[in-house]
Amino acid sequence: MENYSKICVIGLGYVGLPLAVEFSKKFNLIGYDKNKLRVNQLKKGLDVNSQLKKQDIKQKKLKLTYRKSEIKNCDIYIITVPTPVSKNKKPDLNPLKDATLTVAQNLSKGNIVILESTVYPGLTEEFLVQILESKTDLKLNKHFYVGYSPERISPGDKLRTLKNVKKVVSGSNQYSSRIIFKLYKKIINAGVYLAPSIKVAESSKILENVQRDINISLMNEASLIFDKLKIDTYEVLKAASTKWNFLKFTPGLVGGHCISVDPYYLKYKAEKAGYKPSIISSGRKVNENMTKIISNKIRLFFKRRKNNNKIRIGIMGLTFKENCPDIRNSQIFKLINLLKKKRFDIEITDPLLKISEIPKPFKKFFVNKFSKKKDCLVLATPHKEFLKYKKNYYENNLNDNSMIFDVQKVLKLNLSKKISLYSF
Ligand SMILES: NC(=O)c1ccc[n+]([C@@H]2O[C@H](COP(=O)([O-])OP(=O)(O)OC[C@H]3O[C@@H](n4cnc5c(N)ncnc54)[C@H](O)[C@@H]3O)[C@@H](O)[C@H]2O)c1
Question: Tell me, what's the pLDDT at 1?
Answer without folding.
Answer: 66
